[in-house]
Design goal:
Pfam family, one: UDPG_MGDP_dh_C
GO molecular function: NAD binding; UDP-glucose 6-dehydrogenase activity
Number of helices: 19
Protein name: UDP-glucose 6-dehydrogenase
Keywords: NAD, Oxidoreductase
Shape: globular
Enzyme class: oxidoreductase
Distance between the termini: 58 Å
Largest sheet: 6 strands, parallel
CATH class of the largest domain: Alpha Beta
CATH architecture of the largest domain: 3-Layer(aba) Sandwich
Structural class: alpha/beta
Bound molecules: uridine-5'-diphosphate-xylopyranose
Mean pLDDT: 97
Low-confidence stretches: none
Number of domains: 2
Number of strands: 14
Helix content: 40-55%
Length: 441
């Protein structure tokens, strides 16, 4: 059944959700306040790098199922099903999440709702937000109690956004148990195709749905920091964390995924989400429950310091050294540099007096905007020109294909530090290079 849907926010989350809901056959209106972003999307261009999204966007624009607007009036007129997919960044100088974008959508949209409507929140928010937004929406909307707020957290990974939206591991919906309404029935209609395919659908109260998302990200971050903590012990004892991870990962209770030791996690989600989770637990008087996440954060940040130390060791002193940095995105298949471990390391090394040359297959523009003083090169080989040390900080396939012979002629010293344990140590050592990985002998 075709349904009309408005999606508020056209960033990674909102643009993907809008295009994918159209792909499911719905009529979709994407809404944003950023006119430049809207113009790009209307022209079939995705304003960020996300494999496969442009095809879905173009197909659905051409089919007339997908449009974009900056007008909330148009959105309120067009649909009675609204998805909220705006960002919840970390507040400046605090751990807590900044909810100004989420709040702004409700403040603008609710007064325009003259008839029954369901607003599904998708953004990652502190537990308790959905209930508060629901009360505010009912207060502001001419339709009053006929406006419902439900929570439908999003678990998509950048680089796999389309696949994760159209073939999710599960769908989670939080509904207001005190006000039985249409939200569950509407969600079943919107996601009918996915439910027919047997995707698990879990319905809970609002708080549980909000916490499912926070805990999933906290668990993933903990898993990465666990293996990175073990990597520190491996380094101290001459053991190899990659073999160790394979070995413990075979235990189905542990699982091998998210056990890749290296430079640690970054991006627009995991770092700020674990901090917001701690801040919210504190507000609720449950701060002790999540103090371990502070250690998860510390272990993660220590990986970056360790990388800088290894680069310094390799060069003797960073003052006047030339350092090649391969990778700037927080992970491959993304041009996102938000809280990117790679750029953080590059910046620290430059501060210590080295000339840093960065290359990334997709994230050059975003890197230049965020770190304008770093040196940038158009190719991996150019970045390595005259280098005293080569640092691989994002595991792009392009870097995994690099051959020692490609770099032999351009570098000053044959030293490579593999911050993602993504290269074959033996191959580089056999070619006369000094190879160092994180958590490997
Ligand atoms: C994450 C969650 O996976 C997703 O479910 C949620 O909706 C948003 O946050 P994303 O930020 O896109 O997604 O990236 P993810 O693939 O989870 O990687 C996060 C970071 O962890 C990256 O910097 C990555 O390099 C790092 N990582 C991941 C590791 O260091 N080791 C691993 O084993 C896995």
């Amino acid at each position: 059944m075709t349904t009309r849907i408005a999606v508020f926010g056209t960033g990674y989350l909102g643009a993907t959700h809008a295009a994918c809901m159209a792909e499911l056959g719905h009529e979709v209106l994407g809404v944003d306040v950023d006119a430049a972003k809207l113009a790009k999307l209307e022209a079939g261009e995705v304003p960020f790098y996300e494999p496969g999204l442009e095809e879905v966007l173009r197909r659905n624009l051409a089919a007339g199922r997908l449009r974009f607007t900056s007008s909330y009036e148009e959105a309120a007129e067009f649909a009675d099903i609204h998805f909220l997919g705006v960002g919840t960044p970390q507040k400046k100088g605090e751990f807590a999440a900044d909810l100004k974008f989420v709040d702004a959508v409700i403040e603008t949209l609710a007064p325009l709702l003259t008839g029954p409507a369901v607003i599904f929140g998708k953004s990652t928010v502190p537990v308790g937000t959905a209930e508060r937004l629901g009360a505010r929406a009912r207060e502001l909307a001419p339709a009053g109690d006929a406006v419902e707020v439900a929570w439908n957290p999003e678990f998509l990974r950048e680089g796999f956004a389309v696949q994760d939206t159209l073939h999710p591991d599960r769908l989670v919906l939080g509904v207001d148990r005190n006000r039985p309404g249409r939200a569950e029935a509407v969600a079943r209609e919107v996601y009918a195709q996915l439910l027919d395919e047997g995707i698990p659908f879990l319905v809970s109260d609002l708080a549980t749905a909000e916490l499912v998302k926070a805990s999933a990200n906290a668990f993933l971050a903990t898993k990465i920091s666990f293996i990175n903590a073990i990597a520190e012990v491996c380094e101290a004892s001459g053991a190899d964390v990659t073999v160790l991870a394979d070995a413990i990962g075979h235990d189905a209770r542990i699982g091998r995924r998210f056990l890749n030791a290296g430079l640690g996690f970054g991006g627009g989600c995991l770092p700020k989400d674990i901090r917001a989770f701690m801040a919210r637990a504190g507000e609720l008087g449950a701060d002790q429950a999540l103090t371990f996440l502070r250690e998860v954060d510390n272990i993660n940040m220590r990986r970056r310091t360790r990388m800088v130390e290894l680069a310094r060791e390799a060069c003797g002193s960073l003052l006047g050294a030339r350092v090649a940095v391969l990778g700037a995105a927080f992970k491959p298949d993304s041009d996102d540099v938000r809280d990117s471990p790679a750029l953080n390391v590059a910046g620290q090394i430059q501060l210590q007096g080295a000339a840093v040359n960065v290359y990334d297959p997709k994230a050059m523009d975003n890197s230049r905007a965020l770190f304008p003083t770093l040196g940038y090169s158009d190719t991996a080989l150019d970045a390595c020109e005259g280098a005293d040390v080569v640092l691989v900080l994002t595991e792009w396939p392009e870097f995994q294909k690099l051959q020692p012979a490609d770099l032999d002629a351009v570098v000053r010293k044959k030293v490579l530090i593999d911050g993602r344990n993504c290269l074959d140590p033996q191959q580089w050592r056999d070619a006369g290079w000094t190879y160092r990985g994180l958590g490997r002998p």
